[in-house]
């Protein structure tokens, strides 16, 4: 099998030693079909055990191994070495504080996920004994692509609005809220609107579209956010302009 | 405490040089300046028109000339860029579900172009140009 | 050391841990629940499960049939009272997930759709495309956010259980980002720490599956049960080991050798069925142990296909057509294209068996209780004896739910009249735990490297404890693992930082894997028969007279483990012949 030497520039930061992050150069023998994560694993196993990063599934579904690779937010388990020439620059996900090396602090994202009430709030409660809620394939397809988010946070690392306004709920959280809003079983939209149809919610989004460009699961958060804007606007018109709705 | 998370600061004024997609975005956003300028110009034109034929004629004379033409060409180019870039993203905001699938985005974009052309024709017709 | 007091502490926040946490919170909002995990919940390996979850819901199916499939699939090593409980609870748990928003695939009338799966006589596997585990995990995680009483401790690595007067009373855990060790005092502890596939070099398991939960209980005196039964999934990608779900075959994919022959018909799983029209419980829909063993025989006969990634057989799905593949198997297509460069729409994909699942684990009964009062376990880390000697695909996702919930119920019952703990004694235990880590940090005479020991362990497991085993190989593995455990005491940390020190966690994980690997190998050496996933070249027959029993491996510190046995519970299905001939034999 073909092997080649791959050069990596990896951002290192140990808060107990370093004042600020710095790049460290590695040269590591790699197989042609490897991904960047394999190269990092080879470094950790044979060259430098002090390098730190998160990873687990190696099949782009657990969402652990997001990092900036040549300036682009990527899952390192899905960034094939054959797609890179020259030195590969690896940094922790942008827009998140660096805990250590390639490990970021994810607290803000986790808090925001929780705030949008990302769970089914039944429209009509139904006992388990009554069986499943009926949901046609068409009703399922209406929201299914928005349910594919693996919470990898790449969209936050791509979103300049999140960088400039850290209070912004951000693409993944709002998309998840929208996923439940679109679910035929759900009746919780009004509750979620109070969180997402706000200045720090969807109206902070200026439709850069970067989130959808970097999403590894084709969830298309930008679409979800624009749809939330359209629906919220219609809400406003209904509330203020329709006869009988005046307050 | 051993933790000391490092925060990388993002420049509020230069961030859009960080990635080509940010520059593309800014090029769309910057069109609003030109479109705003054109709106002001249009308002001025209407105001002049209401002041009488002479006033309107001198307004037209004032905006004639190569520099104005250049400026107006720029406005048209940016307005087109604005319209095209927005039309291209409409399928995201207005998806049309048919059964289990979605109408391909191209149809939605095409529908917008068609509507644009129709409205333009109607305006031109109404204005007596056609 | 900071102390956190909880009514129930849960170790692991994958499918079983989350299900337990929700069940506790629903039962009593006043319960203080500590959900502790070394990763954020949605990173747990439940997310990688693809095919689906089995539960009887359609007309024409019955609990008895699900019972029979599970018991025969497990080669009669399942406890039948456990299987009865499981098949009865399964549909309700899957419906509960549906009510929580899980995007199950649907029939045209809006009811839940089911698909075929290996070893199942009826279609009863609920699925969400080929991302069923992912959707189950995220549905559970998101639902858990509703409950303020579930307090999560994400990215905490659990070090030791705290015992006092014969009861489990809590644990110690290190906050990974600060290196601070915290003491958790809890009335009961539920271990849901997942499997241990990473002790093998070629596995579908993610990096986190290092047997931590199993080792926690094992070291605290709870036996590991039936550890020798390791499931090889027959269709892994040959380079990364990524799983190509059994649903590939459930939807009609076929397995071919180098001659284009559907070789399964040569191993008691024939006659051949029509391609694209899979028949249940025969040929490609035989059980995983039989399929993986058939690969081994093909390999011996020289019938496999040589690829740059080693010897493979071919999984052919071309006849399914692009539309069906995109609808039912989108992840499979994407995985094969990106990691192997093979589009399953146009080409057969090379595959080979890959370590996938541990049937064995922490000994529990049908209440999800371990022999240690106050300690409960559920999920892959536990061996409740549902899966016996071979798990049927799509039973384990349901196992997480059924026994995660059951563990919660049992824990609530247990803490109801629990006498108060001796807190001084617990604190003393916690300090011992802390001292163990301090010693590791201050060790100066370490000579062994973590990665070196780990490689020797995985090499040994692959070489000697694979699909087919024999006395000599197993003995060699037992000896090697004993040595590796001794050498482990001289392992040297390369990184002494307190902040997110993954070198430290890899060292601790290696310790867990070595303990699990030794228990597994000792169990395999002692079991002189072939049953389900445990195949001995030197003891080729199933031996119900001697081994219709669970092996129980007991930890003995630095000494070799001790093995004893516990009878299998038989209620109504006496051991019989496993028939995957499609009714032709």
Question: Could you explain the architecture of this structure?
Answer:
The complex is a heterotrimer of chains A (247), B (130) and C (585). With 247 residues, chain A is an alpha+beta fold. Chain A has two domains: 3-104, Roll (Ubiquitin-like (UB roll)), CATH 3.10.20.30; 107-241, Alpha-helical ferredoxin (Fumarate Reductase Iron-sulfur Protein, Chain B, domain 2), CATH 1.10.1060.10. Chain A has nine helices and seven strands, in the order ββαβββββαααααααα. A five-stranded mixed sheet of chain A has the order 2-1-5-3-4. Chain A has a two-stranded antiparallel ribbon with strand order 6-7. In chain A, strand 6 and strand 7 (103-104) form a beta hairpin. The longest helix of chain A has 21 residues, at 221-241. Chain A starts with a strand and ends in a 6-residue tail after the last helix. The mean pLDDT of chain A is 96. With 130 residues, chain B is mainly alpha-helical. Chain B has two domains: 13-91, Fumarate reductase/succinate dehydrogenase, transmembrane subunit (3 helical TM bundles of succinate and fumarate reductases, Up-down Bundle), CATH 1.20.1300; 94-130, no CATH class. Chain B has a two-stranded antiparallel ribbon. In chain B, helix 1 (20-50) crosses helix 3 (66-93) and helix 3 (66-93) packs across helix 4. Chain C is an alpha/beta fold. Chain C folds into three domains: 3-229 and 359-422, FAD/NAD(P)-binding domain (3-Layer(bba) Sandwich), CATH 3.50.50; 234-355, Flavocytochrome C3, Chain A, domain 1, CATH 3.90.700; 425-549, Fumarate reductase/succinate dehydrogenase flavoprotein-like, C-terminal domain (Methane Monooxygenase Hydroxylase, Chain G, domain 1). Chain C is built from 15 helices and 22 strands. Chain C has helices at 15-27, 63-73, 80-99, 132-144, 212-219, 247-250, 288-301, 321-328, 330-340, 396-416, 423-442, 450-464, 471-488, 502-526, 544-547; strands at residues 3-11, 33-37, 53-54, 114-115, 125-126, 150-154, 156-164, 167-175, 181-191, 224-225, 230-236, 254-256, 305-307, 310-316, 349-358, 361-363, 375-377, 382-383, 468-469, 535-536, 549-554, 562-567. Chain C is globular. The termini of chain C are far apart. The model of chain C has no long low-confidence stretch (mean pLDDT 96). The chains are: A alpha+beta (247), B mainly alpha (130), C alpha/beta (585).
């Amino acid at each position: 099998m073909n092997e080649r030497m791959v050069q990596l520039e990896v951002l290192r930061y140990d808060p107990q030693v370093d004042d600020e992050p710095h790049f460290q150069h590695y040269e590591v023998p790699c197989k042609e079909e490897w991904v960047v994560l394999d190269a990092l694993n080879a470094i950790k196993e044979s060259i430098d055990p002090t390098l730190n990063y998160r990873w687990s599934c190696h099949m782009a579904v657990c969402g652990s191994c997001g990092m900036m690779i040549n300036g682009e937010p990527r899952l390192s388990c899905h960034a094939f070495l054959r797609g890179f020439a020259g030195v590969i620059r690896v940094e922790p996900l942008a827009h998140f504080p660096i805990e250590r090396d390639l490990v970021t602090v994810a607290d803000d994202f986790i808090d925001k996920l929780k705030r949008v009430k990302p769970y089914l709030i039944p429209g009509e409660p139904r006992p388990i004994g009554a069986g499943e809620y009926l949901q046609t394939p068409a009703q399922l397809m209406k929201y299914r692509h928005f349910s594919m988010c693996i919470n990898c946070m790449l969209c936050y690392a791509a979103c300049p609005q999140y960088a400039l306004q850290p209070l912004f709920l951000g693409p993944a959280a709002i998309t998840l809220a929208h996923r439940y809003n679109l679910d035929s079983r759900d009746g919780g939209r009004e509750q979620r609107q109070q969180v997402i149809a706000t200045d720090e919610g969807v109206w902070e989004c200026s439709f850069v579209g970067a989130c959808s460009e970097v999403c590894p699961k084709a969830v298309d958060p930008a679409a979800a956010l624009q749809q939330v804007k359209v629906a919220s606007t219609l809400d406003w018109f209904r509330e203020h302009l329709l006869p009988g709705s005046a307050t | 405490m051993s933790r000391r998370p490092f925060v990388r600061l993002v420049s509020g004024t230069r961030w859009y040089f960080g990635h080509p997609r940010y520059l593309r975005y800014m090029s769309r956003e910057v069109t609003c300046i030109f479109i705003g300028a054109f709106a002001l110009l249009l308002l001025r034109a209407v105001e002049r028109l209401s002041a009488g034929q002479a006033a309107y004629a001198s307004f037209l004379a004032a905006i004639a000339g190569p520099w104005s033409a250049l400026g107006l060409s720029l406005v048209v180019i940016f307005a087109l860029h604005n319209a095209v870039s927005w039309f291209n993203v409409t399928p995201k905001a207005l998806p049309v579900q048919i059964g289990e699938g979605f109408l391909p985005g191209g149809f939605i974009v095409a529908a917008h172009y068609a509507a644009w052309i129709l409205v333009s024709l109607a305006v031109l017709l109404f204005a007596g140009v056609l | 050391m900071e102390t956190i007091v909880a009514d129930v502490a849960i170790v692991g926040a994958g499918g079983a841990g989350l299900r337990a946490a929700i069940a506790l919170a629903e039962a009593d909002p006043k319960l203080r629940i500590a959900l502790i995990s070394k990763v954020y919940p949605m990173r747990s390996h439940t997310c990688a499960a693809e095919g689906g979850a089995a539960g009887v819901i359609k007309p024409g199916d019955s609990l008895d049939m699900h019972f029979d499939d599970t018991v025969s699939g497990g080669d009669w090593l399942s406890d039948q009272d456990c299987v009865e409980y499981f098949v009865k609870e399964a549909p309700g748990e899957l419906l509960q997930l549906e009510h929580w928003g899980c995007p199950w695939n649907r029939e045209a009338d809006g009811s839940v759709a089911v698909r075929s799966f290996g070893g199942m006589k009826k279609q009863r596997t609920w699925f969400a495309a080929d991302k069923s585990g992912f959707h189950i995990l995220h549905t559970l995680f998101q639902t858990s956010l509703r409950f303020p009483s579930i307090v999560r401790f994400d990215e905490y690595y659990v070090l030791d259980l705290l015992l006092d007067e014969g009861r489990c009373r809590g644990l110690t855990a290190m906050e990974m980002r600060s290196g601070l060790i915290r003491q958790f005092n809890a009335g009961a502890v539920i271990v849901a720490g997942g499997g241990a596939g990473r002790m093998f070099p070629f596995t579908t398991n993610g990096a986190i599956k290092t047997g931590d939960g199993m080792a926690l209980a094992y070291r605290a005196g709870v036996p590991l049960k039936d550890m020798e039964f390791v499931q090889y999934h027959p269709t892994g990608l040959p380079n990364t080991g990524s799983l190509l779900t059994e649903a590939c075959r459930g939807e009609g994919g076929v397995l071919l050798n180098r001659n284009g022959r559907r070789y399964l018909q040569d191993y008691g799983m024939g006659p051949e069925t029509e391609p694209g029209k899979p028949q249940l419980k025969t040929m490609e829909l035989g059980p995983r142990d039989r399929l993986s063993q058939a690969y081994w025989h093909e390999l011996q006969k020289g019938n496999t296909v040589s690829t740059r990634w080693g010897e493979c057989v071919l999984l052919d799905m071309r006849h399914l057509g692009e539309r069906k593949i995109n609808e039912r198997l989108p992840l499979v297509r994407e995985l094969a294209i990106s990691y192997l460069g093979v589009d399953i729409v146009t080409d057969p994909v090379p595959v080979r068996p890959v370590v996938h699942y541990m049937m064995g684990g922490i000994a529990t009964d049908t209440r999800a209780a371990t022999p240690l009062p106050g300690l409960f376990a559920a999920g892959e880390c536990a061996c409740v004896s549902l899966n016996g000697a071979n798990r049927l695909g799509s039973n384990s996702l349901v196992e997480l739910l059924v026994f995660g919930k059951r563990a919660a119920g049992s824990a609530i019952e247990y803490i109801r009249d629990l006498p108060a703990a001796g807190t001084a004694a617990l604190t003393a235990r916690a300090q011992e735990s802390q001292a163990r880590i301090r010693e590791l940090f201050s060790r100066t005479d370490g000579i062994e490297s973590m990665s070196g020991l780990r490689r020797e362990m995985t090499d040994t497991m692959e070489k000697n404890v694979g699909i087919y085993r024999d006395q000599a190989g197993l003995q060699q593995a037992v000896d090697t693992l004993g040595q590796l455990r001794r050498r482990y005491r001289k392992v040297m940390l390369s990184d002494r930082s307190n902040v997110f020190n993954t070198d430290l966690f890899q060292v601790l994980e290696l310790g867990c894997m070595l303990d699990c690997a030794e228990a597994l190998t000792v169990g395999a050496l002692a079991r002189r028969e072939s049953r389900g996933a445990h195949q001995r070249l030197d003891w080729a027959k199933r031996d119900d007279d001697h081994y219709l029993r669970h092996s129980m491996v007991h930890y003995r510190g630095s000494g070799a483990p001790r093995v004893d046995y516990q009878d299998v519970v038989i209620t109504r299905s006496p051991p019989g012949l496993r028939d995957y001939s499609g009714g032709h034999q």
